[in-house]
Amino acid sequence: MNTLKGKIASIKTNQSLSLVTIQIEELFFNTIVIETPDTATYLKIGEPITILFKETEVIIGKGSEHHISIQNKVMGTIIKIEKGELLCKLIINTKIGKIIAILTLDASNHLQLEVNEKIIVMIKTTEIMLSQ
Amino acid sequence: MIQIALQKKLSAATGEMLLDINMQIEQGKLVTLYGSSGAGKTSILRMIAGLLQADTGTITVHQKTWLNTSTGICLKPQQRKIGFVFQDYALFPNMTVKENLLFALEKNQDKQIVKELIEIIELEDLQNRKPNNLSGGQKQRVALARALVRKPEILMLDEPLSALDKKMRIKLQDYILKVHKKFNITTLLISHDISEVIKMSDTVFMIENGKIIQQGNPIEVFTTKKVSGKFQFTGEVIDIKKEDVIYIVTVLIGTNFVKIIAEENEIQTITIGDPVLVASKAFNPLLQKIN
Amino acid sequence: MIDWQPLLLTFKLALITTCLLLVISIPIAYWLAYTKSKIKPILETLVSMPLVLPPTVLGFYLLIAFSPANTFGNWLDTYMGLRLIFSFEGVLFASILYSLPFMVHPIQAGFSNLNSTIIEASYILGKSKTTTLFKVLLPNIKPSLLTGIVLAFAHTIGEFGVVLMIGGNIPGKTKVASIAIYDEVEALNYTTANWYSIILFVITFSILLLVYLINGGYLKRFWK
To answer: How does it sit in the membrane (chain C) (predicted)?
Structure first.
């Protein structure tokens, strides 16, 4: 589980769904949750919050421009690669903290990922959980 | 509303302990007392039942005073309308299952309730047997049915399920929930199984050394931080296996086993047998209709 | 031919003693089993005294107490019309005292061995102490009751010293079988003594055997 700490920057609510923007350092992450400020006390602008997401949900991109639907992204450097039989674990240093990504060995080989390489870490809006 | 304030000096294995609790229970709720053994949970139930005298305190049940030590009011157990399921069942060995239930009838009470309870708790096949010929789970069901005959205002269960195996326990939890809903009886349950507390209760009182240290919604009490994931269950870790660069954790949730992928950092704090919260975003699970 | 009167008297005495003892002992045993009173050890000791005291001691004091020459005995005689020495009533009274522990102990043990939560369960179901005693407690200590009844009965049959002290040897009133045996031996009528002895032996043996069979569950198994 990747854990990052930030604070809530904005909340957009429609019926029982809320799109929450969290500021971590100078970066903004979005998540969508089935909660509203009425049902969850922690949904308050300025409130310190922790975002959680699973290592297996992290997407890795190489190069700088990606025309894809993912808004949550951060630049990082691979500091360690641990290869298994089918899977591969990357430890990535970013300016908002260490992030771990687990992807298939094939994908990692295909991207020819190496230690010290600069990459982009991406995570889908629907995969981020909030925790107090 | 049931208001309970009790103080009593208890002599525990570790020396003297002052039990001092203050609880408010809403009518029709299912409430658990959770805590390690020797924390004073059973003493609390026994004092509410009138089987144990409090040093000082008051018990008010729907505006009726059961106990007020300052005015000297103390109703006898017979006068308090309670149902009590003892840890050792306490069935009358000389009576059959049905006779045990019939014995519980009040004067002039309609016998229909006995028939109804035998049906709800599915005791038809057992009704003519003596308690000595029943298994633990069966005895527990009889004890539950017997406790309900009087239509009590409070139903209390003293660790009713601790002696049963997991499968039987789940079945009995369902019976308890069923009668709780059906008769809308305020129910007090002692348990030291977190998943049981979360499954069963509206409110939990966490008790330690005779004091309430925490109370509230079970999920909020047991999970140190609230997680926004809507797909949440509590279970028990059955197995942890390292495979490839990840770990596969098997968790028993109710009677279902689920497998969850975990990372080394998470595994460091978890061992087999630990109660865990399994959470996911509601966006991920698929729904498929079963024909 | 032997005189059946002493035997009949013996069983009459044993039967009445046992019935009265049962009625007296249940409350005593109940109290002893559940009380937290500080005087419990004293009462327990008193109940157990006949076990260790020579019967003659008990008989001697009863004789003195009930003698019309004494205030108490005189009072009984004058106001209650009861003369307890050298009478069947006196022997009965002495028997009850003397067999008390044989009835009280098994019943007390029966109560103590019962799981105390069934009493609490009954109270919580709104049942009074009396209902609980008769509907829950007593039916569950049947073996103890049976043991008490039989021990008290058998013990009364075997009584000698107390009867002799307070009752003497009056045919049809206080001459029970054990005294008749002694009497016949004194008179060198060994055959009659032998008959009395054999009858007592066979009857007490049968009664005790029956109890062990019932309490051991042998009969139930046999009938199945």
So the answer is: Multi-pass membrane protein
What domains can be seen in chain B, in order of their start residue?
A: 2-222 (3.40.50.300), 231-280 (2.40.50.100)
Q: Residue B163 — very low, low, confident or very high, per pLDDT cuts 50/70/90? A: confident
Per-residue confidence at A66, pLDDT binned at 50, 70, 90? low
How far apart are the CA of C101 and the nearest CA of chain B, in angstroms?
A: 26
Query: With left for phi above 0 and alpha for psi between -120 and 50, is residue B186 left, alpha or beta?
Result: beta
Q: What number is the average pLDDT over the span B106-129? A: 91
Token readout for C85 is: 């020495």
* The one-letter amino acid at B255: T
Angle at C168 between CA C150 and CA C165, to 5 degrees: 70
CA–CA separation, C102 and C21 (whole Å): 10
Contact B245 A132 (CB under 8 A): no
Instruction: For chain B, say whether A126 makes contact (Cβ under 8 Å).
Output: yes
- Indicate the residue type of B121: I
pLDDT score for B3: 93
Q: What residues make up the domain containing A78? A: 2-131
Low-confidence ranges of chain C (pLDDT < 70): 1, 219-224
* Residues B246, A40: C-beta atoms closer than 8 Å: no
Q: What angle do CA B52, B104, B89 make, to 5 degrees?
A: 60
Q: Which residue has the tokens 């009664």?
A: C207
Q: What is the mean pLDDT of chain B?
A: 88
H-assigned helices in B76-217: 97-103, 112-120, 136-148, 166-183, 194-200
User: What's the pLDDT band for B226 if we cut at 50, 70, 90?
Assistant: low
Query: B94 to chain C: which residues are within 8 Å by CB?
Result: 136, 139-140
**Band of pLDDT at residue B95, cut at 50, 70 and 90:** very high
Domains of chain C and CATH, by start: 5-46+54-223 (1.10.3720.10)
For residue B198 the two structure tokens come to 């979360």
pTM of the model: 0.72
Look up the CATH number of the domain holding residue A51: 2.40.50.100
The number of domains in chain A is: 1
Contacts of B160 (CB under 8 A, 6+ apart): B85, B87, B140, B143, B144, B172, B176, B189
